[in-house]
Design goal:
This protein is mainly β and about 180 residues long. The chain is about 5% helix and about 25% strand.
Length: about 180
């Protein structure tokens, strides 16, 4: 019977050898690995008629109609439409951001137009205030949802002057 002896050759640097001799670097030390993640609801598609909405409050609003504090124009309805919502997504929340009106930031935005003493009031069709930072949540039906909204010109102080009304509101949508 023949005895076979194998010689193990270790190649390395002196730094590697010294590292193995260092206290606290033992091969038996446990290593903790944390694996995390987050599954989020899949988004819907924003219907093409809702990607860049222009709400026309009127091109011939009479200044006399906005002379007393609390006067407003008629509401102008508009929608933000979501389509092709995945079956795994059940709700959407729309959050509004814009420059708030200093007199009534709860549901009004400052106008950057040339008319003075006028703001843009925005609400949900149920009267929900949708000022800066406000949100509205809806549940899907048939993989779609429409946020029914409305806007109008409003004067908190009265004495609106002739000129343009302009405000920009950004809407971000999150899904649950």
């Amino acid at each position: 019977m023949m005895k076979v002896t194998r010689l193990l050759t270790v190649k390395g640097t002196m730094a590697g050898i010294l590292l193995g001799m260092m206290p606290g670097a033992n091969a038996a030390d446990p290593v903790s690995i944390s694996v995390t993640g987050n599954i989020v609801a899949s988004p819907c598609e924003i219907k093409s008629d809702s990607t860049n909405i222009v709400v026309d409050l009127g091109q011939s609003i009479q200044a006399s109609a906005l002379q007393k504090a609390g006067n407003a124009t008629q509401w102008v309805p508009f929608d933000v439409n979501l389509i092709n919502c995945p079956a795994t997504t059940s709700n959407a929340t729309i959050i509004f951001q814009g420059i708030p009106d200093s007199s009534n930031p709860v549901d009004m935005y400052a106008s950057s137009g040339t008319a003075l003493n006028v703001a843009v009031q925005m609400q949900g069709m149920g009267g929900q205030s949708l000022g800066n930072g406000r949100s509205l949540t809806g549940a899907f039906a048939s993989n779609a949802y429409s946020f029914h909204l409305r806007a109008r010109a409003y004067t908190n102080t009265g004495y609106a002057t002739p000129g343009t009304i302009r405000t920009v509101v950004t809407a971000a949508i999150t899904y649950q």
